[in-house]
Design a protein that fits this description.
It is a single chain. By secondary structure, the chain is mainly α. It has a single domain (35-267), classed as Glycerol uptake facilitator protein (Up-down Bundle), CATH 1.20.1080. The protein is built from 13 helices and no strands. The longest helix has 29 residues, at 41-69. The model is unreliable at 22-28 and 264-290 (pLDDT under 50).
């Protein structure tokens, strides 16, 4: 009799699935944004602000701290390596805890998702405004540590401005192509996306940092330049990454084909969200196990 009652309880109260299971196991609801819900636009923009501000703050602050308190003058490759690891690790952390809301943290990535028709242009422009404003994390770093270390500003080699544009295009092309092929829709919430993004940034920022800064991100270059009141070479880091993002969208289209309806749905609501809806929906009596 006891076994029969337990069986009836299981059928009436099935175990949670999807988002409901996550909440039950974690003890609370994690950060999440439904891209079909206009009420969630603010949380998406706030997520972008946190990620971008953290990136510019850790880069500019790290460069200034190394210059003022590092103990001795570092070679360009040494400081480049340290800053690359700092920024890469921050991106791993930020994409992990904000990826289910919004985690572009890069106007070039937002451009790529827009060209792939994963985002409406109204929100694209809102993203860009927030991303460039959040690059003020470099100003915050300067208020703490001063302008030492040039606040990790990206600077091309003398007389090699157009070479720097081409180099930025190449690096950004690889970064955006990887993101487009790992992410479903404009959310960077795949299980391996944070590690892949962090590893890519560490590798290529270490390689290209001593040459011209290896920004791969217009907002990342914008923050230190504004903090130093010198935008004379920022155009390089706007044009180069933009070209790379456009090329990446074209190559991703060839590799993956046009976006499918399922991918558009995934961009708007993750499987966790759909799982929660399925959990909340009543099961018809005809489909209940006997």
């Amino acid at each position: 009799m006891r076994h029969i009652l337990r069986g009836q309880q299981r059928r009436e109260n099935p175990p949670p699935i999807g988002k409901a299971a996550l909440i039950a196991s974690a003890g609370g609801q994690r950060g999440y944004a439904d891209w079909t819900n206009p009420d969630h636009r603010l949380r998406r923009l706030l997520s972008e602000c946190i990620g971008m501000a953290g990136l510019t703050f850790i880069l500019s602050g790290g460069a200034a701290v190394l210059a003022r308190y590092g103990g001795h003058s570092l070679e360009p490759w040494e400081s480049g390596l340290v800053l690359s690891v700092m920024s890469g690790l921050w991106l791993v952390v930020a994409v992990y805890f904000l990826g289910d809301i919004s985690a572009h943290f890069n106007p070039a990535a937002t451009l790529a998702f827009a060209l792939r028709r994963d985002m409406e242009w109204k929100m694209v422009f809102a993203y860009w405004v927030v991303q460039f404003a959040a690059a003020g994390g470099s100003l915050l770093a300067r208020s703490f540590f001063g302008p030492e270390g040039k606040l990790a500003a990206t600077l091309p080699q003398p007389g090699q401005h157009w070479q720097a544009v081409g180099f930025e295009a190449v690096l950004t092309f690889g970064l955006i192509l990887m993101i487009l092929n790992l992410a479903d829709g404009p959310k960077l919430n795949g299980p391996f996306v944070p590690l892949a993004v962090g590893a890519y940034v560490i590798a290529f920022a270490t390689m290209g940092g001593p040459y011209e800064g290896a920004a791969m991100n217009p907002a990342r270059a914008f923050g230190p330049d504004v903090a130093l009141a010198n935008l004379s070479t920022w155009w390089i880091y706007l044009i180069g990454p933009s070209i790379g993002a456009v090329l990446a969208v074209g190559v991703a289209y060839v590799l993956r084909g046009p976006a499918k309806a399922e991918e558009a749905t995934a961009a708007e609501g993750t499987p966790l969200h759909r799982g929660a809806e399925e959990q909340e929906a009543p099961v018809p009596s005809s489909r209940r196990p006997s």
